[in-house]
Amino acid sequence: MLLKTQLQALLRDGARGAERHDARHLQRSWRKFAAFAYVVEQYGYRYDGLSPLSPKGSPNPYFAFRRMPDAAERAARTAARFPDALDGGPLPGMRPGGQRLRPLPEARRDVDLLHARIMVDYSRTHRRRGLIALLLIPLVLLIPLSQTGFSGPALLVCAAVWLFFAGLRALGLLIARRRHRKYGEMLRAAGITRPQT
What is the pTM of this model? Predict the structure, then answer.
């Protein structure tokens, strides 16, 4: 159902001639979203990185797709070849059947490269994520402290809570850096030196 909604939104933007189509990751995995990005390209919109609609550090950002010069022709060809795409039929470059976003062998490399670009872009959103919450936690902890008193044990519990969340944020940043490095190397090996963002 989510895939149908996303495809309908794409086709609406295509029919209006919109220069940019924005979509959120609503699939079960990032690899499936990369497969969706491949399908979007068959309808005339090329993946273009994080969308300006996304708030800084959003855990669920929008991604932008730019209209190609031959978008109308691409969309018409794809619609003619896959007339039942909106009604559960096969999608371009994907295997038919229950899981519709499983790439065929000939589309797998393109989907893998799109996946790498999406992961590099997504890893950039982690820099600010959680920073405001981390700064606000001490203020929030003042509420229970004002009720229980500013005793040594209460202050230690509050410090432990803050350190726990600081550790989670640091772990998230570490994972994001590793992801950025891993997929960045994959893109460089494929000759993509600067992914469009």
Answer: 0.78
